Amino acid sequence: MARFALALFVLGCSQTLDSQAPNVTAGDPLGLNDVSILWPLPETGPPPAGYLKLFPGAGERGPGIPEAARQAIPNLHADVPDAIVWAATVIVAMRIDPCARRVDGACMRELRLSAEAIQTSLDDSAVHLIYELDEPSFDALVTDLRVWRSTSPVPTDGALGVHPGLAKAGIASPYARKLHDIVERFATEEALVRVTVNAFAFDTWGFSRLDRATGWERADLPGLASGTTGQAWRLLAQIDNMNDPSGAIEPWPEQNFAALLHADALAQGPNAPAIVEARDAILAIEHPAKASAATHDCVSCHLSDGAHRWAEKRGVSFDTPDRWRPAADIEVATDVPPELDGNLSNTIAFGYHRLHHGKLVPSITRRVVAESAEVVLQLSQTH
């Protein structure tokens, strides 16, 4: 477990609401589990009724997606019929950010939803829905989340993980339905500006991006040569092998950690120049001030945590002056299930990894923890 610290400052207060969580009010600052929300899911089997669906059917609920965007989203599993995949695809995570970086460096007030295909026979795949909110809408979203937090059956403070309140109350509870009301209120068709996709076929994960600005056609991926609208992670080792990180990113970004992606990567020792360069590339990806979804390629962001953990267990030191450190003094912890500690089959940054034809395991990367901590700090200073 890695532990860090971050200072929170309470700005203002409001009237205490009725709540089963003692000493929690709608005026309290948001914590990690309030700005980055991971829905609980059963370890095995399909999700029960009550989750938000990516493509809701009659009587089901889900976020707003323009029809043109729906039609453009590729199937998440090339070897599984669309109907099976989409029936099992639910919203598993939500994140907010008052200053998500655009390519031009400007801030975007962002609501981000992640959907995954949750079905025993399906490997990792995901859809990210990116919504841009104006200032009044984002402020209203923050207020709604604070009120929702104050009604949690248990405190939501502490390490980022499966949301404690949702886990306690259950997906069919009024508490969960209140969150779904919030999602549907702000995740509207008009606010959706980008969709990114992580699809799986034949031991290869393919990443792509669709933008409203391009008419929901594939757009260039950041960090790669102009005209590159797709990127792949091709696993060469056995799926869920914890000892062999062998694989290839296609195309490789200029700054990469390719030196770590083969079984004998450390043959020359953990301090070999190529290994140090790869380590530094990972540390940059994990640092919110040095990298973002607007500057770095998809695969590197999704694989950096697995490569970090694989190398660190084998003697590579990531404790350098350049690594991300939170601002000051509240604990930020990351607990990593042993099944993910160096598993390069896991391409999920904030959601669930499906062990090969087995159980679901929560997956939260260092990058997501760092971003969430920075969001908590920004909101404590501005909201």
Short synopsis of the structure:
Helices cover 25% and strands 21% of the residues. It is of the alpha+beta class.
Helical content class: 25-40%
Mean pLDDT: 89
Low-confidence stretches: 1-20
Shape: globular
The major sheet is characterized as: 8 strands, antiparallel
Strand order of the largest sheet: 2-3-4-5-6-7-8-9
The count of DSSP E runs of length 2 or more, i.e. the number of strands, is 12
Number of helices: 9
| Number of domain units | 1
Distance between the termini: 30 Å
Main attributes of the structure:
383 residues; disordered N terminus; globular; 25% helix; 9 helices
Describe the overall structure.
The chain has 383 residues and is of the alpha+beta class. The protein has one domain. The chain has 9 helices and 12 strands. It has an 8-stranded antiparallel sheet. Strand 6 and strand 7 form a beta hairpin. Helix 4 packs antiparallel against helix 6. The N terminus is likely disordered.
Describe the secondary-structure layout.
Blueprint: E1 2-5, H1 32-35, E2 36-38, H2 67-72, H3 82-87, E3 89-101, E4 107-117, E5 126-132, H4 135-150, H5 164-169, H6 174-186, E6 192-201, E7 204-211, E8 231-235, E9 247-250, H7 273-285, H8 298-312, E10 331-334, E11 350-354, E12 360-364, H9 366-382
Antiparallel strand pairs: 1-10, 2-3, 3-4, 4-5, 5-6, 6-7, 7-8, 8-9, 11-12
